Structures are given as structure tokens and as C-alpha cells.
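Bench log, entry 3. Co-assembly request; chain sequences pasted below exactly as received.
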Amino acid sequence: MAKSTQLIDNEVFRAYATYAAIVLLKMMLMSLVTAYFRITRKAFANPEDTASFGKGDSAKKFLRIDADVERVRRGHLNDLENIVPFFGIGLLYALCGPDLSTALLHFRIFAGARILHTFAYLIPLPQPSRGLSWAAGYAVTISMAYKVLSKALYL
Amino acid sequence: MAKSTQLIDNEVFRAYATYAAIVLLKMMLMSLVTAYFRITRKAFANPEDTASFGKGDSAKKFLRIDADVERVRRGHLNDLENIVPFFGIGLLYALCGPDLSTALLHFRIFAGARILHTFAYLIPLPQPSRGLSWAAGYAVTISMAYKVLSKALYL
Amino acid sequence: MAKSTQLIDNEVFRAYATYAAIVLLKMMLMSLVTAYFRITRKAFANPEDTASFGKGDSAKKFLRIDADVERVRRGHLNDLENIVPFFGIGLLYALCGPDLSTALLHFRIFAGARILHTFAYLIPLPQPSRGLSWAAGYAVTISMAYKVLSKALYL
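Structure output for the full assembly:
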């Protein structure tokens, strides 16, 4: 019973939990941004979502693709493609007993890079801002995967 | 060695494992629903998938977008966007040692909300059924993230 | 403190960490393959990505959908839809204390099936190669979920 509170007492695991929660919350925020753009741009994907705008053709014109909505959706999907590996590999990495300072460096760079990536995607900032922030998060995840495989390898 | 069986003996962790497995299986079911609609609607995305319908133009007409298939795919993507944060934040939450009854309340609401969301999306039910079931799952995940950050915060 | 190194000393957990890292890295590789096809096919989704090709209409023609890019993106999304459940259910399964040989069998089949699936999608190989490799990974995940639910069930 006491077990479940022990892992969370480990400083590396606490750091992991903190940054993992932050980037997952950031990813969840993309749902709200999508909803905001869908409502302000009046651009929906499902007929039932436009019912409040009237019936027939008056509602059907809101079933459309909007460039701003698609941009947020691409950012959301990019989050999934990158934050899922960070969450998974980061969890295994945190359980491999890395140095606290090294672990914090990895987690902080990843979280910072993904927050920058979101601003670069949504504003949008000129390239290579988005490319570099994506690459920083990617490189950090590869570095953690290397540690996991060198510590845990059991094929 | 005995270690791996201890976490699973914790009641909160067992509850987490149960509901996490349920919602992940529910998400996996969306793949089968997509396949069902692709086959019955004869609407495929890849040329090699239509080879059994003949060659050339007779097969090419099945490379098309179907409204029912796209609806299931949107539901599947929405699952990914919401069940991934639940899995990740819920795992950290379960390791934070919450009360069993509070934890069960969170897990049950989330699982119920996502099952309702799937029915609301696929039938489809009139809004705000889908919106409210989405919001319930979202709120539960935020509530668990708050607990994780207040217990584990280590920046 | 010593805690975080104990789970990783468990052989089943080490095997899980190894194969989970491998399939997550394989999924991450899809980002690079997408970037490769976007650059060689000159098919981009964001106006800021085409700025280096000049301004106005000369750049705008590269904002287009390319069949090869879309194929990689479908493969990437299919990875997300299948590797996320494997990661989540596999983690719970590894904590349920399965036999090492049974666990290795599950992990190896899944990793092999997903690597085959990627080749079948990208080359592409004629069906049912892609369908069967998808089904093998799916079946393994279901089998692990069954073990998790029969061991941990707490509703």
C-alpha cells in the first residue's frame, strides 16, 4: 500500500512527473484552441455541430475547412507524434536512475522546445523557428532512448 | 524480482490499470469500426487495398473519401487526443497515492464519458451530447493533473 | 532513491523497456520519412515552409498534397493508433508479473509486426501483408490486455 507513494518521492521521478504533466496539459490546450478557431471562424466538421445555425443550406455552409483551424490541428497532431514518445521514453528513462541534473536538463529542454514549437506554429514564426524547436525536442528524446537502451537492453 | 507484482497489488493502481486498459481497448475498437465502414462503404485510402476489386479504373473508383469513414476517423483521433493525456496523467496520479474512492470516481467518470462520447459521435446524437461527454473527460484529466502537480512539483 | 533502479532490474520490465523504446523510436522515424518526402516531392502544408522557394505564386505551388507524403502520414497515424495501446497496455502487463518467456514472445511479435507493417505500407507490398502485420500487433495487444484485466481487475 505504501508502495505507490515511494516512486513519487524519488526526485528524478518527481521531475519527470512535473514536466510530463506540463507537456500533456499543453497538448490538451490544443483542443481548446481548435474549438476556439472552429467557433470564431465558423468552420465545423460535423453536421450536428452546425445545427444551432439553422437548418438546411444555411447550416451546411459552416461545414467547411478553414486554414487557421487546420493549422491548429496540424500542431495538435505534431504534439501527439512527439509528446507520446517523450512520455513513454521519458518514463523508462526516469526509471533508469539518471543523474538528477542530467534528467532535469533533458526534461526542461523538451518542455521549452515544445512550448516554443507551439508558438512558432500558431503565430506563425518564420522558419526555421518551428523546425529547430521540433528538432530540439526530438534530439532530447533520442538521447533519453539511448540511455534507456544502454541501461535496460534485454532483447 | 518480486517487485513487479507489488505495484499491481496496490488497489489504486489496480483500479488505474483496469480503467486504462478499458479505454485503450475502446480506442483500439475504433480501428475495427473504421475497417468495417471502409469495407461496407467501399472507400479506401490505398491503391493496394482495392486490388481485389479488379484492376485499373474499376478499382480506382473505390479510392474515395466517405463521410461515415471520416466520422469514425475523427472519433478515433479525438480518442488519441484525450485518452493519451488520461493514460499519462492518470498513471502519475495513481502513483501520487490518492484516496481509493477519489481515484475510482475520476477513472469511472473518464471511462463513462469516453464511451458516451463514442456513441454520441458514431450514432450521431445531437449536440451538446458529444461536447459535454468530451468536457467531462477533459475536466477529470485536468483534476488529476492538478493533484500530480501539487504533489510532485519539481521544476 | 534506490527505488528507481529496482523496477529496471526486473527482467520482464527490462524487456518491456527495450521493445517499447524500439517501437517508439520506429514511430519517431516516421517524422523524418515525412520530412524527406516533403522536401524531395516539394509538397508542404504551411506557407512559411515554402518561403525559401521564393515569394508569391512561385512558392504557393509547393503548398500541395502529394500521394507519397500522405502515405507516410497514414503510416505514422497508424503507428500512433497501435503503438500507444501497446505502450500503455504493455506497461501494465509488465507490472502484472508475467513469465519472462511469454512476455518476450508478446513484445517480439509486436515489434516485428510493426516493423513489417511499416515496410508493407511504405514500399508498398501487396495486401494482405499490411493487413496481417497490423492484425498480429493488434492481437498481441489484446492478449496482454486480457492478462492485465484478469490480474488487476478492480472496477
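Residues 128 and 140 of chain A are 18 Å apart (CA to CA). The first helix of chain A runs from residue 11 to 40.
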